[in-house]
Amino acid sequence: MLVRHACEPALATRRVLVVGVGGLGSPAALALAQAGIGTLGLVDPDPIEISNLHRQLLYESADVGRPKVAVAAERLRRLAPGLRVETWCERFGPGHVALLRGFDCLVDGTDTVAAKFVLNDAALAARVPLVHAGVLGFVAQLMTVVPGASACYRCVFEEPPPPEETPSCQEAGVLGPVVALAGAFQAAEAVRLLVGTTPAWTNRLLRIDAWTGSWRTVPLAPNPRCTACTAIAEHESANAGRSDVP
Ligand SMILES: [Zn+2]
Fold first, then answer.
1. If you measure from the C-alpha of residue 146 to the centroid of ligand 1, how many angstroms do you get, rounded to a whole number?
2. Residues 1-40 pLDDT 10s
3. How far apart are CA 42 and CA 109, in angstroms?
């Protein structure tokens, strides 16, 4: 039985796109379905592997080899029969900006730094809020990007480091409960955005260390050298100029 709460009527018409339905995306999608979200979009190109099962809560051993988005859609529809689920069994890229414009919020469930830059830039281009999370080992970090109103991922990290310097979650390992925690926090932040409450992690980076049992927030500010934020500011300025022409 789903948990009912005051936010649910406001969420029933809202659409959230979850990119990456793995360690982060599974708990985020579960929590959003249980919260009463109207539509979940799921994007992931990968099949389920046996090594995924310890941290990807939507799947079990009998699912190995099947597309993650197909199995996730089945489980989520069973959990929340009123939920609409749309799936794309493909890798999210810059060409998905138009797709993203059909959603109210983007949840980052990807597991590489390069993919997180792609999502950030797409969220800014589409003017759709992004709830970012990343996990490596015992450490999780979260931040929320409201395009044009807060620091973005590129404001903070500027450029992707060389691939050899950034092991993916698959290579470096992650602790299942840490991604479950981060994914659940992403769902809570998405709900805050969708009901119009001030998000918790705009202009703040939350860092949780499950090894030391500590967490801290780091204040952030938009970076005037950020190429992604500058691009959308210039685009909006150009559009404003055109609208002045009779
Ligand atoms: Zn920026």
1. 10
2. 344 555 667 899 999 999 999 999 999 999 999 999 999 9
3. 10
176 CB-near residues (< 8 Å, 6+ apart): 23, 54, 55
> What's the fold here for domain 8-243?
Rossmann fold (3.40.50)
Handedness of CA 89, 94, 97, 98 (dihedral sign): negative
Half-sphere exposure of 84 (CA within 13 A, CB side): 11
Which residues hold their Cβ within 5 A of ligand 1, which is an ion? 152, 154-155, 226, 228-229
Domain coordinates in residue numbering, the chain: 8-243
User: 183, 176, 168, 181: which is closest to 16 by C-alpha?
Assistant: 183
Query: In angstroms, what is the span from residue 96 Cα to ligand 1's centroid?
Result: 19
> Following DSSP, what letter does each residue of 221-233 receive, concatenated?
---TT-HHHHHHH
Q: What is the pTM of this model?
A: 0.90
